[in-house]
Design goal:
The complex is a heterodimer of chains A (about 110) and B (about 700). Chain A has one domain: 2-Layer Sandwich (Nonspecific Lipid-transfer Protein, Chain A). Chain A has about 110 residues and is of the alpha+beta class. Chain A is about 35% helix and about 25% strand. Chain A has helices at about 5-15, 65-70, 75-80, 90-100, 105-110; strands spanning about 25-30, 35-45, 45-50, 60, 85-90. In chain A, a hairpin with a 3-residue loop joins strand 1 (about 25-30) and strand 2 (about 35-45). Chain A starts with a helix and ends with a helix. Chain B has two domains: about 5-220, Beta-galactosidase, Chain A, domain 5 (Distorted Sandwich); about 230-685, Glycosyltransferase (Alpha/alpha barrel), CATH 1.50.10. The relative contact order of chain B is 0.08. In chain B, helix 3 (about 240-255) packs across helix 15 (about 575-590). Classes of the chains: A alpha+beta (about 110), B alpha+beta (about 700). The interface of A and B includes residues 22, 83, 84 and 95 of A.
């Protein structure tokens, strides 16, 4: 079975453009505990995913289990943050917009199917 | 109105409610405390001197964020002849800052034991009323210079830091000071109380224990003065209007909420004490009311709501893609999904109101950049209206909650469960398409057609929206019209029946422009007739309807904000004198509340009570009630932007005499508006009978 975390970032890279981030530009870093870090950069909706980059405007940190649950729609990102299970640092307005990437509908339906 | 027994100071979503001594002794029935982020960070804060609680001489709350308490030591009798004075000065900021000073008036030195008892129950605002049991654990730490009260539930943690400047003995319940004061000398300490959301990291600037700088206070003061400088100046022969105008501006400044996601910007929270947070509907309507005075609130509101626009289908939150949220909360119950406010999307009117406000901001400010920046969000909102708002495909937006446990039954502004009634008083069925929401949709599509043509380079969308709006108007005037009673039904319910009670909602239809010209006269006749019009204003539901109750929350009370939008609607259809009457009567009502209109007051006929009777549990100050006089000024002066000009077409009640509003800001720079009172409002309306 394909790993959900890997699949999520792979799909973002494939997609290349996300209309929900049309007016957004900036870089986020995702620190998934015991798994690794990913950088997701967006420029007016165009996405670039990499494993190493120079810096980030906002950083998210959470466990792999919580992250995967966000991806498949079992966990709401905002309440994950409110509970203190996901740390967010950096530009809060930008971070809020990156949360629009969850859930990934196709991975969510795969999970349900 | 009873004697005031509590005093509130506030800033954003931070507020302190205490008794007149400055003490906090919370109980389930008394919502006293230090509240921040929808959590009570102090439920107990008692000052004693030699074991006695002081007596109050006077309390001074001239500023909304700052209060002074003048006290003398308690003697157990009412006889006051003290050699000591005690002063507490409190400024609210992130938590609060309190200075305690004791003066010795005697010729001899004095030794005192001063003690502050402190406790925090960390109740979620939702729990305060219901006295629910906490699910986590309380803890405390005593560090060298401070007491830390804490609460933890899994990884969720909240802490209250209490840091005295003077040397104190600290235990888990209190801070004690051994005080020696020389003859005619004084002793003072300051206390910094900080509300900490553990784990919010660098997103919150947190108090670390600086003293004597009065930081919160000076910043607030400056910020209030800045607002005062920027808004237009008012002068009027009727002095009460000046009082009301000033109170409105102060309350709107006080009720500003500073969202984490928009550093440096503020938007209107809904009201004190229960609604100090972002509400889609309230924040937008208040911003709209304030536009001729300041556009900053509206610009921040649109951006904050755009950030939170729905992106997924989520039954618990009643969320759908493109939907504008209803209410955001930050407390424990929201965090653990025991309440859906993260945010909750249960409002069917917020999405069209978002589009209306976006267009209105551009009309006043010429801020084309914002219209372009929010193009995707606006398009998503339009899609929501047709795809999710109109859930049964009948061409009208209707609502029915999918969160049946903690969601809202009524997702319109009249959001109490029993507000949508037939004329015979029976309850309508869900889903409900209330009439004013259809008006908002019509207005939103007309306005977005302009935006699409002018800013989004999409004439095709503009044409489509205009066609849809025209069709909606045509069908609405047919489907909602009650031919026998000659007004619009309150709603069409889940069984397709016209909900036939006579209500204030028909006034919003005038504001939106959906009323066909040949039906406007009848609508106005009802609004100004004796069944809807009390003499102070338009009732939410008409006297004579089965559900009417002059003290029913949405069943007969009078809401200032409702009346202000109705007045603007009357102007839109050319009913200048009627608009002037609604404005005058509401401004008269305000004089009985010292210029601060409450959320709602009773619908008793004016001749019965002589003064407006405040609704028992009304929220005060309530932002859209504070904004109502501003919108009434716009309605009386007939202010309408037209391109780069501001049209001024005054219809002023004669009682006001000369009315001047100077330096009205907008895309024209600054413009003055003048009007002389020529409308004899006592001779307007109220003679026609509603059917």
């Amino acid at each position: 079975m394909i790993d959900t975390t890997e699949a999520f970032f792979a799909r973002l890279a494939e997609r290349g453009y996300e209309p929900l981030l049309h007016s957004v530009s900036g870089t986020s870093r995702w620190d998934i505990k015991d798994t690794g870090s990913w950088f997701v950069a967006v420029k007016n909706g165009s996405l670039t995913v990499s494993r190493d980059a120079a810096g980030a405007d906002c950083v998210f940190a959470c466990s792999k289990e919580d992250f995967d649950h966000m991806v498949v729609g079992k966990q709401n990102p905002t309440t994950l943050f409110m509970q203190g299970r996901m740390k967010i640092t950096g530009n809060p307005g930008l971070a809020q917009l990156f949360l629009r990437l969850f859930p990934d509908e196709s991975l969510a339906s795969r999970e349900q199917g | 109105m009873g004697e005031k027994t509590t005093i509130s100071v506030l800033e954003g979503n931070n507020f302190v409610v205490s008794d007149l001594r400055g003490d906090i002794d919370a109980s389930p029935s008394e919502p006293l405390g230090l509240f921040a982020w929808d959590t009570r960070f102090l439920s107990r804060w008692l000052l004693t001197v030699d074991g006695q609680r002081p007596n109050v001489l006077s309390t001074d709350d001239l500023d909304y964020f700052y209060v002074q308490f003048f006290l003398v030591p308690g003697t157990g009798t009412i006889y006051v002849d003290s050699d000591l004075s005690i002063m507490r000065k409190r400024a609210v900021g992130n938590g609060f800052h309190e200075d305690v000073t004791i003066l010795n008036h005697k010729d001899k030195p004095v030794d005192l034991k001063v003690r502050i008892e402190a406790a925090a129950d960390f109740a979620d605002l939702f729990e305060v009323k219901d006295a629910l049991k906490k699910k986590g654990e309380f803890y405390h730490r005593i560090e060298s210079d401070r007491l830390v009260l804490g609460y933890r539930r899994e990884t969720f943690a909240r802490e209250t830091l209490i840091i005295p400047s003077a040397r104190a003995g600290i235990d888990e319940h209190s801070l004690s000071f051994a005080v020696h004061i020389e003859p005619h000398g004084e002793w003072a300490t300051s206390l910094e109380v900080a509300a900490v959301l553990v784990g919010f990291g660098e997103n919150r600037e947190q108090t670390t224990g600086g003293h004597g700088d009065q930081r919160a206070r000076s910043n607030m003061k400056r910020s209030l003065e800045k607002l005062g400088e920027a808004v237009p100046r008012l002068s009027c022969d009727w002095p009460s209007l000046q009082v009301t105008y000033r109170q409105s501006l102060i309350d709107l400044a006080a009720l500003r909420f500073f969202p984490i996601t928009l550093p440096g910007q503020a938007l209107p929270a809904a009201g004190l004490p229960w609604f100090m947070t972002i509400f889609g509907r309230d924040s937008m309507l208040v911003s709209y009311q304030a536009l001729p005075f300041t556009s900053e609130l509206a610009e921040a509101t649109l951006q904050a709501l755009a950030q939170q626009q729905g992106t997924r289908v989520d039954d618990f939150r009643d969320e759908e893609p493109g939907k504008i949220m209803h209410e955001m909360r930050f407390g424990e119950m929201t965090a653990f999904e025991e309440r859906p406010h993260s945010p909750y999307y249960g409002a069917a009117d917020a999405t069209p109101l978002f589009l209306i406000l976006l267009d209105e901001v551009e009309r006043w400010t010429g801020n084309a950049e914002l219209v372009r920046q929010l193009e995707m969000e606006a398009r998503a909102a339009l899609t929501w209206i047709d795809k999710y708002g109109d859930r049964n495909g009948d061409g009208y937006v209707e609502y029915s909650r999918r969160n049946t446990e903690t969601g809202l039954v009524n997702q319109c502004w009249k959001d109490s469960w029993n507000s949508i009634l037939f004329a015979d008083g029976t309850l309508s069925r869900l889903p409900r398409a209330t009439c004013e929401i259809q008006g908002y949709v019509y207005d939103a599509k007309m306005r977005c057609a302009r935006l699409a043509r002018t800013f989004w380079d999409d004439p095709e969308l503009a044409n489509r929206l205009e066609k849809e709006a025209a069709e909606l108007k045509r069908r609405f005037n047919q489907d909602f019209w009650l031919a026998d009673r000659e007004f619009f039904a309150l709603a069409i319910d889940g069984d397709g029946r016209k909900v036939d009670a006579l209500t204030s909602n028909i006034g919003h239809l005038l504001w939106s422009g959906i009323v066909a010209e040949d039906k406007a006269e009848a609508v106005v006749r009802h609004l100004m007739g004796p069944h809807l019009y009390s003499g102070w204003g338009v009732r939410t539901m008409a006297e004579g309807e089965g559900g009417y109750n002059p003290i029913g929350y949405h069943l007969g009370t009078i809401w200032p904000h409702d009346n202000a939008f109705i007045a603007l609607g009357l102007r839109r259809y050319g009913y200048r004198e009627e608009a002037a009457r609604v404005a005058m009567n509401m401004l008269e009502a305000a004089t009985y509340f010292k210029g601060r209109l409450p959320e709602a007051f009773a619908g008793y006929p004016r001749e019965l009570t002589d003064f407006p009777v405040e609704y028992p549990t009304a929220c005060s100050p309530q932002a859209w009630a504070s904004g109502a006089p501003l919108l009434l000024l716009r309605a009386m002066l007939g202010l309408e932007p037209a391109g780069d000009h501001l049209l001024i077409d005054p219809a002023i009640p004669s009682m006001l005499g000369q009315l001047e509003l100077l330096d009205i800001p907008g895309r024209w720079g600054r413009i003055d508006a003048f009007g002389r009172g020529r409308v004899d409002t006592s001779a307007v309306g109220n003679s026609a009978q509603s059917s």
